[in-house]
Amino acid sequence: MSIKLDAVGKKTAPIKHKYAWKDVVLYALGVGAKADELDFLFELAGPKVLPTFAVVPSFGALLSVTEALGADLAMIVHGEQKAILHRPIPPSGELSTVAEIKGIYDKGKGAVALVEAKTVDEKNEPVFDNWFTVFVRGAGGFGGDRGPEPIKADPPEGKAPDFTVSEATTPEQALLYRLSGDLNPLHASPEFAKRGGFDRPILHGLCTYGHAGRAVLKHACGGDPARLRSFAARFAGVVFPGETLTTMGWKVDPGKWVIQTKTQDGRLVLSNALAETGETLR
Predict the structure, then answer these.
(1) Angle at the Cα of 109 from the Cα atoms of 106 and 110, rounded to 5 degrees
(2) Is there a contact between 112 and 132 (Cβ–Cβ < 8 Å)?
(3) What are the pLDDT digits (tens) for 242-272?
């Protein structure tokens, strides 16, 4: 299959996303939040908003980019994700996102589109940015630039993780997470999953990202969303609903943590992951 190479440099129209406290609670449940994280699940506690909720208001930008590329949803794989937080995300409001395709790169068996999405509030003040890559299987081989090499974020050799968190996802995890906006049938329909080359529906990469983000928030930020500056990760493998995710973190410098997430059988599913933390932002 081919994609539209002339999409590079094009920006989407502003994509509006209006949300309320129920939406941030639904997202938290979708990425595995438990009863002991009540501040993120109970409206009378705010609620606080998980920083990785940043992927939800910008998801419309991902869909717009997919359309601009002319890509088949069944052949799309979310390659990498980075959320950059400028301040805590409010529990309700209306946000506006503009995305731009920064480059399309030839990876041989597929093509990768690099996208920047900037999100602002009603006052046009920055709330967060997202960088993500879209891998289109079967769209490579067009003779283009291979693009920049990915950032390496490997755990320090011989050093035990500073934290380890293991959580089982539920068989219904993808069906719950998709209610936050990613309705790709790859995550719900066995027939569609087989069309994409999987024997059953797979978990959203962004759901795995959210699970890891909760672990980072608890162990690297003391549970304070205002301390997470950014979280970047590469989606290195497929997760099926019901599998157990183990997230490990190594503090490599002040405010910098290398993160990895594996399944119960040791398969690496989040790699080249780096979280940056700091003092509380308000």
Answers:
(1) 55
(2) no
(3) 999 999 999 999 999 999 999 999 999 999 9
Query: Of 32, 79, 181, 205, which one is the catalytic site residue?
Result: 205
106 given a catalytic annotation: no
The percentage of residues in the chain with a pLDDT greater than 70, rounded to a whole number, is 98
**Could you tell me the sign of the dihedral formed by the alpha carbons of 179, 58, 40, 209, in that order?**
positive
Domains of the chain: 5-277 (3.10.129.10)
pLDDT attached to residue 281 = 60
In DSSP notation, 182-209 reads ---GGGT-HHHHHHTT-SS----HHHHH
**For this structure, is 197 an active site residue?**
no
CA separation for the pair 216, 210 (Å, rounded): 10
Query: Does this model's pTM top 0.85?
Result: yes
Q: Does residue 48 contact residue 40 with C-beta atoms inside 8 Å? A: yes
pLDDT grade, residue 282 (50/70/90)?
A: low
Quick one: which H or E segment has residue 125? none
Give the full edge-to-edge strand order of the sheet including 244-253: 15-19, 93-106, 110-120, 126-137, 76-85, 228-235, 268-277, 256-263, 244-253, 163-168
Q: Is 254 helix (H, G, I), strand (E, B) or coil?
A: coil
Which of the residues 17, 78, 187, 211 is marked catalytic? 187
